Amino acid sequence: MSPMSQLKSIATALPDHKISQEDVLAVLAKARGAALPARLKQILGNSGIAHRYIARDPDYYLEQRSWPERAQIYDEVGRALAGRSATAALEKAALRPSDVDAIVMISTTGTMTPSIPSRLIEAMGFRQSVQTVPVFGYGCAGGILGIRLANDLADANGGQNVLLISLELCSLSYDYSQFDKKNMIATALFADGCAAAVLTGKAGQGEGPSFRAFDQKTWPDSRDMMGWDIGETGFDLVLARDIPTFVAKDFTPFCDQFLSEQGLEKSDMSEPACHPGGGRVVEALEDYFAPELPGIPATREVLKHHGNMSSPTVLFVLEKLLSSNPKRPVLMTALGPGFTSVLGILDPAGAD
Fold this sequence. Notes:
- This is Type III polyketide synthase.
- The chain contains 10 helices and 13 strands.
- By secondary structure, it is of the alpha/beta class.
- It has a 5-stranded mixed β-sheet, with helices on both faces. Strands 8-13-12-11 form a 4-stranded mixed β-sheet, with helices on both faces.
- The longest helix is centred in the first third of the chain and has 26 residues.
């Protein structure tokens, strides 16, 4: 099988404000005006997260914020993170901004018109003719769906250099005016971050990891599992409790079929790059991969130190895995709004 596009680089960027789970519990108690119930404190403390990064100081999130205020932070912080990660990814790939033919931007926690890629053209020195593709709505599945879209663009026009940027500022949706269990769990789980990747379909690039295949599936009658409602001050989270059950019941046969179609067994694979979701989702994924694969430590490590950043999270995991030069194919997995599962396979450099 001839390879699809080649992955030249991945780079990541984080906002300045680091917050531990202990800090989050204290902030939630402060917002509530009383100690947290023991059961809720246990749930939040067992998330698998030690600390995360957010766009603003924790006390900022205790204040009422309008939609324009949230949009201003998305513009300021989001553009800075996108620029930093894109610059680093291009440097790692030994490419200049003028070498880029298309920029794909994945984000579901904010939006701008003109888009962030359009605003980066002059600031970073991209060609005026560069194609910009801003994509909204993929949510937690956006990292791999973005890679799939970037891969298709890299294969177009006889081969192109494509820059993928995956940016999420999940903290902008924290809302203490709706002090219910769902919002508290979201506050203890979701975080901010950005990742960029460079893909190329141009010939003569030498050896490097390349994509083999992708697939996705959207299940019927599942829209209420994950997404946004439009609220008074911004996006309001929709999040079901039974996603780990979904992994065991619905994701498992879909992934089995995908691997079978590629002529692969789980035992043929390197450690997978999974969007972690949360601690219970990671456990459900580990149950699926066991015993052929002993665990998904890179996924756990990213969740521990970064939380669930939505779409860029799986790119953080993939960056970590590629640093150890895996010799076997890497399966990429994510679940997101729809409710949608997306899968991909990255073959290491030199694979047939």
